[in-house]
Protein backbone atom coordinates (compact mmCIF):
# COMPACT_ATOMS: atom_id res chain seq x y z
CA UNK A 1 0.00 0.00 0.00
CA UNK A 2 1.03 3.52 -0.70
CA UNK A 3 -1.07 5.98 1.27
CA UNK A 4 -3.67 3.27 1.88
CA UNK A 5 -3.98 2.20 -1.75
CA UNK A 6 -3.33 -1.38 -2.89
CA UNK A 7 -0.30 -1.51 -5.19
CA UNK A 8 -1.04 -2.71 -8.72
CA UNK A 9 1.51 -4.57 -10.82
CA UNK A 10 1.83 -8.06 -9.41
CA UNK A 11 3.85 -9.79 -6.75
CA UNK A 12 7.23 -8.17 -7.52
CA UNK A 13 5.91 -4.61 -7.33
CA UNK A 14 3.79 -5.43 -4.28
CA UNK A 15 6.73 -7.10 -2.52
CA UNK A 16 9.04 -4.17 -3.23
CA UNK A 17 6.49 -1.65 -1.94
CA UNK A 18 5.76 -3.72 1.16
CA UNK A 19 9.44 -3.97 2.07
CA UNK A 20 9.90 -0.23 1.38
CA UNK A 21 7.01 0.39 3.81
CA UNK A 22 8.73 -1.78 6.42
CA UNK A 23 11.98 0.15 5.88
CA UNK A 24 10.17 3.47 6.41
CA UNK A 25 8.56 2.26 9.64
CA UNK A 26 11.86 0.88 10.93
CA UNK A 27 13.69 4.11 10.05
CA UNK A 28 11.12 6.19 11.90
CA UNK A 29 11.81 4.09 15.00
CA UNK A 30 15.59 4.34 14.59
CA UNK A 31 16.07 0.86 13.14
CA UNK A 32 17.05 -0.67 9.81
CA UNK A 33 16.64 -3.99 8.03
CA UNK A 34 19.75 -5.22 9.84
CA UNK A 35 17.71 -5.14 13.07
CA UNK A 36 14.95 -7.42 11.76
CA UNK A 37 15.14 -10.85 13.40
CA UNK A 38 11.99 -12.48 11.99
CA UNK A 39 9.49 -11.94 9.18
CA UNK A 40 6.11 -13.57 8.74
CA UNK A 41 5.02 -13.70 5.10
CA UNK A 42 1.58 -14.63 3.79
CA UNK A 43 1.03 -15.05 0.07
CA UNK A 44 -2.35 -15.49 -1.63
CA UNK A 45 -0.75 -17.85 -4.14
CA UNK A 46 2.16 -20.14 -3.28
CA UNK A 47 3.27 -19.94 -6.92
CA UNK A 48 4.38 -16.36 -6.18
CA UNK A 49 7.03 -17.54 -3.71
CA UNK A 50 9.98 -17.64 -6.15
CA UNK A 51 9.33 -14.08 -7.36
CA UNK A 52 8.75 -12.83 -3.83
CA UNK A 53 11.89 -14.57 -2.60
CA UNK A 54 14.06 -12.81 -5.21
CA UNK A 55 12.80 -9.45 -3.97
CA UNK A 56 13.23 -10.48 -0.32
CA UNK A 57 16.85 -11.55 -0.86
CA UNK A 58 17.59 -8.38 -2.85
CA UNK A 59 16.74 -6.36 0.28
CA UNK A 60 17.97 -8.65 3.05
CA UNK A 61 21.03 -10.13 1.34
CA UNK A 62 22.74 -13.45 1.95
CA UNK A 63 21.93 -13.57 5.68
CA UNK A 64 18.21 -12.79 5.91
CA UNK A 65 16.24 -12.92 9.16
CA UNK A 66 14.29 -16.00 10.20
CA UNK A 67 11.18 -16.28 8.11
CA UNK A 68 7.95 -18.23 7.90
CA UNK A 69 6.09 -18.11 4.59
CA UNK A 70 2.63 -19.62 4.16
CA UNK A 71 -0.23 -19.48 1.69
CA UNK A 72 -3.33 -17.91 3.17
CA UNK A 73 -6.15 -15.62 2.17
CA UNK A 74 -6.70 -14.46 5.76
CA UNK A 75 -4.09 -13.58 8.36
CA UNK A 76 -4.08 -12.65 12.03
CA UNK A 77 -0.61 -12.03 13.43
CA UNK A 78 -0.49 -10.87 17.05
CA UNK A 79 2.41 -10.02 19.29
CA UNK A 80 1.57 -8.94 22.82
CA UNK A 81 3.80 -7.60 25.56
CA UNK A 82 2.99 -6.61 29.09
CA UNK A 83 5.58 -4.61 30.98
CA UNK A 84 6.66 -6.07 34.32
CA UNK A 85 4.91 -4.62 37.36
CA UNK A 86 7.03 -2.13 39.25
End-to-end Cα distance, whole Å, is: 40 Å
- Shape, principal axes of CA atoms: globular
Number of domains: 1
Low-pLDDT stretches are none
> What would you report as the Rg, rounded to the nearest angstrom?
15 Å
The fraction of residues assigned to DSSP E strands is 5-15%
What is the averaged pLDDT score? 90
CATH topology: 60s Ribosomal Protein L30, Chain: A
Oligomeric status = single chain
Computed structural class: alpha+beta
The CATH C-level class name? Alpha Beta
Percent of residues in helices: 25-40%
Q: Sketch the major β-sheet.
A: 2 strands, parallel
Helix tally?
A: 2
CATH superfamily, by name, is RutC-like
For the largest beta sheet, what order do the strands appear in spatially?
1-2
Strands, count: 2
CATH architectural label? 2-Layer Sandwich
* Run of helices and strands: HEHE
Describe the structure.
The protein has 86 residues and is of the alpha+beta class. It has one domain: 2-Layer Sandwich (60s Ribosomal Protein L30, Chain: A). 36% of the residues lie in helices and 14% in strands. It is built from 2 helices and 2 strands. The chain has a two-stranded parallel ribbon with strand order 1-2. Helix 1 (10-28) runs parallel beside helix 2 (49-60). The longest helix is centred in the first third of the chain and has 19 residues, at 10-28. The model has no long low-confidence stretch (mean pLDDT 90).
Amino acid sequence: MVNGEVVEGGIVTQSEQTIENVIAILKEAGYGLEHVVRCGVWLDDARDFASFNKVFISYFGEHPPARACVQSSMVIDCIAYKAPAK
